[in-house]
Amino acid sequence: MGMRTFLFLLSSLLLILSQCTQQQDLAQANALLSAGDYLAARAIYSGIVKHHPESPVAHYGLGMSWCAEAMYKANLGMEDASNWYPAIYHMTVAVNRAPNDARFRHTLAVLHFNLGTVYKKQGRADEAIRRLEQATMYDTTLIKVFNLLGALYHEKHDFDKAEYWYRKALDEQPSYAMAHFNMGAIAWAQGEFDSAASAFERASQLDSDNVLYQTWLRKARQKAVIGNQ
Fold this sequence. Notes:
By secondary structure, the protein is mostly helical. It has helices at residues 3-34, 38-51, 56-75, 85-97, 102-121, 125-138, 143-155, 159-172, 177-189, 193-206, 211-228. It is elongated, with a radius of gyration of 24 Å.
C-alpha cells in the first residue's frame, strides 16, 4: 500500500469516526433538551457547530435551545423580543443548509410568529407585520399567523389587507370560528351589518359557547334591522 493510499484511507476513517461522534453528541444533546436542560444541550450543540458549521441539525438544536430559554423567560415575566433573535438566527442557518426540510421551515415560521406576537404586545405593529409575513414564507398553513396579520391590518384600518389574511385563514381551515368573527368585525367597521351578522352567526355556530360571538351577533342583527327599516 502506498503512502498516498494510506493517507486517503486514514482520512476516510477519521471522517467516519467524526460522523459517529457527531451523531452520539447530537443524541446526547437532544436528550438533554428533551429533559429541559437547554443550557447543557446548547453547550454540546455549540461544540458540534464549532467543528461542523455546515450541520443543519446542530443549528436546529441550537435554535431550539434558544427557543426553550425564550419561553422560560416569558413564563417568568421576562419576555423580550431580543430573546428570540438567537433562535431565529440558528434556525435560519438550518433552513439555508437544508431548504427542503419541512420541519426546519415550520419551526422557523413559528419562531417568526412568536417574535411577531411580542412586537404586537409592545405596540410595534409594523415590525410585527414584517415578522409575520416572513413566517408565511416558510409555512403557508399557519392559520394563527394569517389571523394575527388580519388583526394587525384591521387595527391600521387597512380593511382590504385584513380581509385578505382572514380569508387565507379560512381557506386553510373553513371551520376557524375566530376568523369568521373577525370577518364580521370588518363588515361591522364598514357599516355592513347584514354581512357582519352572517359572519358572527357562522362564528357562533362553530363555537356555540362563545359569549362574545353571541353578543356581537345580537348587536349586528339589531343594527341590520334598523338599517333595513
